[in-house]
Amino acid sequence: MAFKIIASQCTQCGACEFECPSSAIKFKGEIYVIDPKKCTECKEAFDTQQCASVCPVPGTCIPA
Length: 64
Ligand code: SF4
Ligand code: SF4
Fold this sequence. Notes:
Distance between the termini: 7 Å
Keywords: 4Fe-4S, Electron transport, Iron, Iron-sulfur, Metal-binding, Transport
Shape: globular
Bound molecules: iron/sulfur cluster
GO molecular function, one term: metal ion binding
Strand order of the largest sheet: 1-4
Domain 4Fe-4S ferredoxin-type: 1-30
Pfam family, one: Fer4_7
Number of domains: 1
Cofactor: [4Fe-4S] cluster
Strand content: 15-25%
Order of helices and strands: EHEEHE
Number of helices: 2
């Protein structure tokens, strides 16, 4: 499993990119995307998914 970013809701603030312990979030083209192969759902690193925690727009970083 991995998380994904709902591009239509993302304000491209960039906050999530720096909080991801797996370096799974990158700015590609004109949107932020989560590489599902790299996303660990923050397991073993944090109790909560960091992208979802820091994202200012509710429901934008969600389980894929
Ligand atoms: S759930 Fe965790 S590992 Fe996955 S993209 Fe979000 S911050 Fe990165
Ligand atoms: S924290 Fe949320 S709004 Fe900001 S770039 Fe990431 S997904 Fe987009």
